Structure formats: C-alpha cells, structure tokens
Amino acid sequence: MPSRLRLVAFRPRPLLVTSIIMQSVFIFFICLPVVIVNSLFCFWNSGCPYRHFSTKTPYNLVRGDIRDSVIKVKGCTAVSIWSLYRHGKRYPNKHSAHLMENAVAIRNHIADSFENGKCSLCAQDVDNVINWKVDHRLFKGITELTDEGYREMYSIANRLKATFPDLLTNLKENEFTFRPTADDRMEESAQAFVDGIGERLSIEQLKVNDSITPYTSCGKYGSEVKDNPKTFEESSKYQKSSEYLAMKDRIQRRAGLDIKLTDDNVTALYDLCRYTWSGIDSIASPWCAVFTSEDLQVLEYVEDLNQYYKSGYGSPMNELLGHIILADLLKSFQQVKNGNGKRITAYFSESTTIDMTLSALGLFKDKDVLRGSQRNRDRKWRSFKQSSFSANIMAVLSRCYLNGNEDYTVVFYLNEEPIKSICLEGICPWKEFEDKFKPFLDTNIDFCEFNAIR
Ligand SMILES: *[C@@H]1O[C@H](CO)[C@@H](O)[C@H](O)[C@H]1NC(C)=O
Ligand SMILES: *[C@@H]1O[C@H](CO)[C@@H](O)[C@H](O)[C@H]1NC(C)=O
C-alpha cells in the first residue's frame, strides 16, 4: 500500500456517535486497522530516537556534567587532575569517506521507490534525506578533527575549569602536562582543550614512543591482536547471523530499494547517519531514518565486538597494556603527594587507550565472553559509552584535613560522571587507591617481545 494512503488513515475522525457503546464498538472496529498502520515509524517526530552509535557517538549524547556531578568531600581540596581523552569528533577515514560518498546516491533510489509507492518511510523522512546538503568536508577531511570535535574538547576543559577554578587558574610552566599522541586530531584536540582552559599553555611535542600508548610499540600486540584477522572473527561471524541478515533485509524493504545492499553499503549508510548527527547542536541526522532502533542495535553490536577483541577483554594483552597507563596515574599522584607533581595531566589519544584503561580497571566486564553467535542485549561492554568521541577518564586527587590529620582521596569520573564501583561511594582513600594501583607498577610487558614503532 502506498504510504501516502496509509497516512490518510491517521486523520482523527470526528466522533459524533451518541451512544457510548456504539462509540466503543465503532472505535474497536475502525481503530484496529489504524493501530496496525500506526506501526509505520516516522523518524523525524519519534521523540527519542536511538542514539548509541558505538565508536562514532558524539560526546554530547553520552556525557554527564562535571560541574553537577563533582563529588565534594568536606575538608578536602582538589590538588591534581589526571585525565585521558579520546580525540574529539573527527571526519571519517579515507576508506569510509569513499564508501559514504558513493552511498549518498542511495537517496535517489529511495526517492524513486517513494514515488512508486514502494517505500514505507514517512514522507517527511524521505524529504529530509533528499534535501540533506552534502558537506564536502565530510568526505575530504579524512580523520581530522571536526568543528564539533573542537567544541567537545573545548567545552570539557571549560566545565573542568568552572569546577576547579583554583586548581586551573594561573598554571605555571612545570604544573601541567598536555600530551597528545602522534596524530593531527590528537594534537588539535589538545589545543581545543587548552583553549577551553583559557590560558596560554604549551602542548608537548608529539612523541612516537609514548608511555600512554604502550600498544603502539608492542610488537606482539600488533601481530597477534591489532593486525590479526582472528581479532575480527566474532564480528564477521555476527555479520553472517540471521539477526544481521534480517536487519539488512528490513532496511532494504522499508526503503524499497531495488539495488541489493552490500555490507559496505549498510556500513556507509550507518556512517552517514552517525557522522552527520550533531550532538553539540542537538540535530538528528536525517540519514538515521533508514534504520529502526533495532537495526541500529545490531550495527552497534558489530562494533562492540570489534572493540572487545581489539582493545578490551577479548584479548588478554589489552588489560596488561592498560596496567602501564594506570601505573602512570599512580606515579603522577605520588609525585603530587611528594610535592613536585602537576596540577593537571591530560593525555589525548584514541579509543584503544581508553578501552585498555577501562579493562585494566575491570569496568564494563561481562561474566560471559562476547560472541558473534549471540548478542547479549544486557551486556556491560558498550562502545558508545566507553569510546564515544571525546570519551574521557578523569581521576581527581584531593588533599584532606580530617581531625587534624592530612590524608588524600581519589575520585574517578567517566565522561564527567563519577565511577562509583572502584571504591565505596566512588571515593578512594589514599591507602585503598595505592593498594589497588601498586601492582600495576610491576607490570611486565616482555610478552611484546619486539618493538614495533609505527
Ligand atoms: C555498494 O557497495 C559496493 C561495494 O560493496 C560498491 O561497489 C557500490 O558502489 C555501493 N553502492 C552504493 C550506492 O554506495
Ligand atoms: C621506544 O620504547 C622501546 C621499549 O620501551 C625502546 O626499546 C625503544 O628504544 C624506544 N624508542 C625510542 C625511539 O625512544
């Protein structure tokens, strides 16, 4: 049935039947088909569309707000912040950009099938896709930081400064570390962050051999995890599952496409939906209309599996490499306690770093290993939270005076929300923090065997 005819059925009819009984009978019989028609899903007015786009989720769709969520303990003053950020929203890489640019043409097929009454997308949703303006930077920017990415990082720093004004004002040369790993988007993210602090502060030179990305120089990680096809076996398996195939079929049918969608086409449409969603200006992407929430959850799982094996619990090396990063955190706070530490340490890196650190902390860990054979809808491992753009882990060290005694506490935050599971109520007394983190100082990564500088 052409969708315009279905929409006619939505119009409320004047109910002038006097008998209430007659009225209910009338409603029963007339509304039954209407209820079925009602399953027609309009994206543009759906109220709360699904917004978990795994590793391409804009930060504003997942963040908390450190100004509201900061845990204050009586008698304590923040003396240092150690933090780790994924770069802000970036443009797609060359491969994805190419597929996306081609996939824009799919909208012509959608328009045709709509004209011929074969497309069951809502009229407005079709209009919005047709009228979407091509932003050529999307295809030419190749992994560079986007304007939104800049604003994500700038705003985090801005909120952090508002939360800890004493700590982050008048920073002297030896009181801060802003260190991006070697890549433009990391460096631009670091610059955005420093701009957001609102002081002229220098950013460290890019280092190839960075302590915060131990995996880049770990030969075995490269050969056995990152570049090993086995790492992506479970997600490939999932992409052959009936659940995944049904998702493809749904898109094909709803959009009324005659062309047979390949996995690449689906991924390209997914990328168009995610990359053109503005989190910071709260503007939904019209491309997302080709997906139902269920479709988006299936696509999300593909990437969750990839991340799980590439940088999470799926490969044991990942946790161990994360220990190196946590050892840096401990050392950083020990130096502050000894009177020669930094007021702020901020590292800017990629999702792998964040995932490895979260894994080393034992967070988002499922009892059962994630597999391609079955999607656990209630899984803890979720890349949209862990590795959204600008995803971040912060640890705040405070000096406290309680009953005349000096002590320290550490509070952790993920995306500006307290992490309450590491210590009771989210507040780690110094001793508990040190006891938990000390073993990381002895992490042995001899298993890397050889050094593989990229
Ligand atoms: C669909 O994907 C294939 C490769 O899998 C590609 O050759 C083709 O151009 C894509 N079509 C569109 C419309 O993007
Ligand atoms: C990088 O780190 C590795 C392992 O720690 C070391 O063997 C190598 O000499 C370092 N290379 C550079 C250029 O600093």
What would your notes on this structure say?
It is built from 18 helices and seven strands. The chain is α/β, with parallel strands linked by helices and 454 residues long. It folds into two domains: 253 residues, 3-Layer(aba) Sandwich (Rossmann fold); 113 residues, no CATH class. Strands 1, 2, 3, 4, 5, 6 and 7 form a seven-stranded mixed sheet that branches. Helix 8 packs parallel to helix 9 and helix 15 packs across helix 16. The longest helix is centred in the C-terminal third of the chain and has 22 residues. It is globular, with a radius of gyration of 25 Å. The termini are far apart. The N terminus is likely disordered. One 2-acetamido-2-deoxy-beta-D-glucopyranose binds next to helix 4 and helix 13. The site of one 2-acetamido-2-deoxy-beta-D-glucopyranose has 4 residues, from loops.
